Amino acid sequence: MTTSDKAGTTPLLVLQKIRQILECFTIEAPELTLQQITRATGLPTSTCQRLVHNLLREGFLDRNGDTYRIGLGLVRWAAPGTFGLDLVQLTRPALEHLRDRTGETACLYVRDGAYRTVVALAETHHVVMRLFMVGMVMSLHAGSAGKVFMAFDPTARRAAVSHGLTQHTARTIVDIDLLDRQLAEIRRTGYSATFEERDVGAASVSAPVFGNTGDIVAALGIGAPTQRLTPADVPRIVPAVTDASEEASRALGYRPGIRPAP
Question: How many whole angstroms separate alpha carbon 224 and alpha carbon 202?
């Protein structure tokens, strides 16, 4: 290896170790001792101690007694990187990946009270499609995306039930006990699949998108005509939907294991 090769690779190894240290800190564990950092990273004690002290000196970490936390300097420097970025921009790649993987229209929804609204979509290339438009407003209790909100956010369920469960089609669930059993199953499996609950001839599969606090911030899924999306297709479609929702969650700073804020 030449001197220039060494010069090019050594800093990357150091950055890798620094990243390991910074990634130890989470919403659940914002303050850690040096021993906890060493154990979590697996770095040699002397190496970890040296890097932590350097990070402290440069403002990447702050110290409070025997514990360390992400430094306010690092937070300040990171702020310009988030300026101008929003939910739609950050999750756009996941939405397009889902459309390309399934061939169907992929939609991103946010909730407002007892309703959900399409805030972004990646349209299918099929001639026959289920029509979606940005700005479409739909009730929560009819359709997979709405049920995802209700399953992972108790306030969404309360809002929907308080508003009233309208019978959109013969397959709309308006029995609260049955609805609650469905919501429990959605929480268990991590996705929702519905057929003709809001519109006859339409089906959808959706999954939750979580933010950096662990709370659900959106629902992401596909909608298609029942000619192309039947109950038999669900096992094939679900991995694509859940992969996309996880991709979107990661883009928003979510890490598995983070519990929602109380």
Answer: 6
- 65 CB neighbour count, 10 Å cutoff: 7
Cβ neighbors of 43 (< 8 A, separation 6 or more) are 17, 20, 21, 51
How far apart are alpha carbons 96 and 247 in whole angstroms? Answer: 11
Distance in angstroms (rounded) separating the CA atoms of residues 2 and 115: 62
AA letter at 74? L
pLDDT averaged over every residue in the chain: 87
Q: What is the pLDDT of residues 59-83, one digit of tens each?
A: 899 998 999 998 877 766 765 555 4
Gap between the Cα atoms of 42 and 214, Å rounded: 26
CA separation for the pair 153, 183 (Å, rounded): 10
Query: Which residues are registered as beta bridge partners of 110?
Result: 117
C-alpha 33/C-alpha 196 separation (Å) is 54
Q: How confident is the model at residue 133 (pLDDT cuts 50, 70, 90)?
A: confident
Q: How far is 191 from 114, CA to CA, in rounded Å?
A: 20
Cα 96 off chain centre by: 15
pLDDT tens column, 210-241: 998 889 999 999 999 999 899 999 999 999 99
Model confidence, pTM: 0.68
Sequence-separated (6 or more) residues with CB below 8 Å from residue 197: 142, 143, 168, 169, 171, 172, 173
* Gap between the Cα atoms of 97 and 90, Å rounded: 13
d(CA 159, CA 155): 6
Looking at residue 197, the DSSP 8-state letter turns out to be S
To 5 degrees, how large is the angle CA 57–CA 60–CA 64? 75
- Compute CA 227 distance to the chain's CA centroid, rounded to the nearest angstrom: 29
